[in-house]
Specification:
The protein has 338 residues and is of the alpha/beta class. The chain is built from ten helices and 17 strands. The longest helix has 19 residues. The structure holds zinc ion (ZN) (2 copies).
Length: 338
């Protein structure tokens, strides 16, 4: 079977792999769609922390079940599924406390272990989440959406509150969709006017602030009548933006870091203390998020049409992928068809 492997930063190759056996508790799936995200782009550029090469990328997968091990009940051959790509140990402190998304020994497919940029893949059957009606494209978008779903869950977003999302890239878009679904009054901050307009026209975000044109703090005060937003999400992974984000929550508010920066973030303690801020990390997503998102897309509460901007077949990935890494390409989500 064909696969695409990232041999080292900047070099993808098309190669042929042997078939893999299904062991107990596993399922063999046919990979139909692979979403490309920031993690893949960072790995390609060589600036993804904790990343080793060579690696088969691909953690946003829309698949069809081909074969299951004896005794598997949650899926059967022919089922179409989203894949929860977080392989957890099941025994560590996080796993024992129902937090498999931040398992001590977590292996994310396509990041720490070889992923799904190939025709067939063997995965633990319990990591498959099936849908009778979602398209393969939609199934491949579930993991991206789950990042936003989990972040909004972490911050316990309430109806009516002002929620600020810093960064209108794919992670920010995912957070927006669930903040809107939670009934929050959403404000988006970015420096790219085209992205801000996209959030307004495609997702129905009521408030946007262009930080390159206006003072963010002043704009936030105006929008919230001087209160400031009670929940703030940083989806940039940019250290300057993450440090600035400590200025934006209301007194008693919370700040959630969805983006990741491989270094140290500093903040002013009196400012943090005076406001009694709660700071949260949000890592990956939990199994229940996958189930919930599939239900929300099935019920047409979450719309997936704005997401996919670029497409390629598996054999064209070697030439197309480098183009997607150029910010001028305007990629929100590139989808690989296998
Ligand atoms: Zn991703
Ligand atoms: Zn664990």
């Amino acid at each position: 079977m064909n696969a695409i492997r990232l041999e080292e930063p900047g070099r993808l190759t098309l190669l042929s792999l042997g078939t893999t056996e299904v062991r107990p508790n596993e399922a063999l799936v046919r990979v139909h769609r692979i979403g490309v995200c920031g993690t893949d782009i960072h790995a390609f550029k060589g600036n993804q922390p904790f990343f080793s090469y060579p690696r088969i990328l691909g953690h946003e997968l829309g698949v069809e079940v081909l074969e299951v091990a004896a005794g598997i009940k949650n899926v059967s051959p022919g089922d179409r599924c989203a894949v929860e790509p977080y392989i957890n140990c099941g025994v560590c402190i996080a796993c024992r406390r129902d937090r498999p998304n931040c398992c001590v020994k977590l292996q994310v497919l396509g990041v720490h272990a070889d992923g799904g940029m190939r025709e067939k893949l063997v995965v633990p059957a319990g990591k498959l989440h099936r849908s009778r009606s979602l398209s393969l494209d939609q199934l491949a978008l579930v993991e991206t959406l789950a990042i936003g779903c989990h972040a909004v869950d972490r911050a316990k977003v309430e109806p009516g509150e002002f929620v600020l999302i810093v960064g209108a890239g794919p992670i920010g878009l995912a957070v927006m969709q669930f903040a809107l679904e939670a009934g929050a009054q959403v404000i988006v901050l970015d420096i790219n006017q085209r992205r801000l307009e996209f959030c307004q026209s495609q997702l129905g975000v009521p408030y946007t602030v262009n930080a390159s044109r206006a003072d963010p703090k002043e704009s936030l005060n105006q929008i919230t009548s001087g209160d400031l937003p009670t929940a703030v999400f940083d989806a940039t992974g940019n250290p300057q933006s993450m440090a600035n984000a400590f200025e934006y929550p209301a007194h008693g508010g919370r700040l959630t870091f969805v983006g990741l920066f491989p270094g140290t973030i500093t903040f002013d303690d009196p400012n943090f203390h005076r406001r009694e801020l709660t700071v949260l990390a949000s890592r990956n997503a939990r199994p229940a998020d996958f189930t919930r998102i599939i239900g929300l897309i099935e019920a047409k509460r979450i719309h997936t049409s704005p997401w996919i901007t670029h497409r390629a077949s598996l054999s064209d990935v070697v030439t197309e992928f480098p183009r997607w890494t150029n910010p001028d390409a305007g990629v929100i989500k590139a989808m690989i068809e296998v």
